[in-house]
């Protein structure tokens, strides 16, 4: 399982977001692996139409109604999203908001993936029963030289243990098949990608190379 976070990169905005989403669909189908595109909200419907599974980068702890400027689970699900990232290091939310969202979505088909920066955060998140936990040490997010797999192998194991029955994904600096292999050997079930793929000269080549880590 691979999550591709488009963030707000210009290389993953508008028509380029749709092209990236279509590429994710193509690789997922040809390599028989689950790949989830996570575009910006304004590109969500177009990326869904490209035929790839899409999540969103964030939803707010509110229901439908008088909540100007907020993002509801109902709205993104109606637009085609099947899940959401929550509390990314670039968009942290407080524990009460996280708990509200996870209680609200419990038992639904809509999936939740809570980002955690260490084993303590992972343990706390696991207690709220999300569908996934994405371990991303904040200091390695966006790194082009180091990765969670080269720098935090011991912590990956700790996070997997802390998460219990909740599947763990790894992210932050992931850029090679070997990074994927290391994470899987330590108990992770997949990976989260962003800049090292989105900003690459040939994103499809990079993604296909990363998929080799699952084989």
Automatic annotation (TrEMBL):
* SUPFAM superfamilies recorded: Triosephosphate isomerase (TIM) (SSF51351)
One GO molecular function term? triose-phosphate isomerase activity
Q: Which InterPro entries match?
A: Aldolase_TIM, TIM_sf, Triosephosphate_isomerase
Q: Which Gene3D superfamilies match?
A: Aldolase class I
Top-level taxon in the UniProt lineage: Bacteria
Reply yes or no: does the keyword Isomerase apply. Answer: yes
Pfam families reported in the protein's UniProt record: TIM
Q: Is Cytoplasm one of the keywords?
A: no
Key words, A-Z: Isomerase
User: Could you identify this protein by its name?
Assistant: Triosephosphate isomerase
- Organism, as annotated: Candidatus Amesbacteria bacterium RIFCSPLOWO2_01_FULL_47_33
């Amino acid at each position: 399982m691979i999550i591709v976070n488009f963030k707000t990169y210009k290389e993953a905005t508008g028509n380029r977001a749709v092209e990236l989403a279509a590429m994710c669909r193509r690789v997922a189908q040809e390599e028989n692996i689950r790949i989830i595109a996570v575009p910006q909200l304004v590109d969500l419907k177009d990326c869904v139409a490209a035929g790839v599974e899409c999540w969103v980068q964030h939803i707010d702890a509110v229901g439908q109604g008088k909540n100007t400027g907020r993002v509801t689970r109902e709205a993104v699900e109606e637009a085609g999203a099947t899940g959401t990232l929550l509390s990314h290091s670039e968009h942290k939310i407080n524990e009460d908001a996280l708990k509200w969202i996870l209680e609200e979505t419990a038992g639904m088909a809509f999936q939740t993936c809570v980002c955690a920066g260490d084993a303590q955060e992972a343990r706390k998140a696991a207690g709220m029963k999300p569908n996934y936990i994405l371990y991303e040490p904040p200091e390695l997010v966006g790194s082009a030289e180091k990765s969670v797999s080269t720098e935090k192998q011991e912590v990956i194991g700790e996070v997997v243990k802390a998460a219990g029955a909740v599947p763990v994904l790894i992210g932050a600096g992931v850029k090679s098949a070997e990074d994927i292999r290391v994470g899987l050997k330590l108990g992770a079930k997949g990976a989260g990608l962003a800049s090292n793929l989105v900003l690459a000269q040939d994103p499809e080549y990079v993604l296909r190379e990363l998929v080799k880590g699952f084989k």
